[in-house]
Amino acid sequence: MDDRKRRFEEAALPHLDAAYNLARWLTRNDHDAEDVVQEAFLRAYRYFDGLRSGESRPWLLAIVRNTCFTWLRANRPAEISGGLETGMEGAELADFDANPEELASIHFNRVTLNEAISALPAAFREVLILRELEDLSYRDISRIVEVPIGTVMSRLSRARRLLQQSLRVITRARVPGVHK
Fold first, then answer.
1. CATH, domain 3-174, list 1.10.730.10, 1.10.10.10, 3.40.50.300, 1.20.1560.10
2. What angle, rounded to 10 degrees, do the helices at 30-46 and 56-75 form?
3. What is the pLDDT along the chain (180 residues), one digit of tens a residue?
4. CA dist., res. 37 & res. 71, Å (int)
5. Is 96 helix (H, G, I), strand (E, B) or coil?
């Protein structure tokens, strides 16, 4: 294996799960996310020489994000046209020592949260995923989405508000007797 390929693998492969997670949330489809991540990794390898040391995660996620939006523009333009107008992943049910009612509640909450996040416009969904699920700093998110930190903060605030509203609506629709 040549040195460039080895260095690329060392820099990029540890972030494969984060890359897929971001692509999955932006495309809302497993197979599309796989395609996007594959294309993003090809792009990343092509431009690997431009990477500054120690910053591979935000650099790679920026490429994944840009690849996602390129893919969305080509395949689902309606999803990104109005983007600004309008934590439980990975927890396995078997990890809990709970009764069937508690397990059903956990599953309901996970499904509801996933549905509410998926309903967010892409611009809000991406900052929420990068901050809350990928635990990136505002500075890194700012570099990834190519907007000022203040814009990241305002989008994140708005994403949280929209998520809260969406959760209320979904819960009201699914749980009889909930009218708040």
1. 1.10.10.10
2. 120
3. 688 899 999 999 999 999 999 999 999 899 999 999 999 999 999 988 878 766 889 999 999 999 998 998 888 887 765 544 333 333 333 343 455 665 555 556 677 788 888 888 989 999 999 999 888 999 999 999 999 999 999 999 999 999 888 888 877 776 666 555
4. 11
5. coil
Helix (H) or strand (E) holding 149: helix 149-174
Longest pairwise C-alpha distance within the chain: 64
Identify whether the C-beta of residue 112 lies closer than 8 Å to the C-beta of residue 170. Answer: yes
Residue 87 identity:
G
CB neighbour list of residue 91: distance below 8 Å, 6 or more residues apart? 106, 110
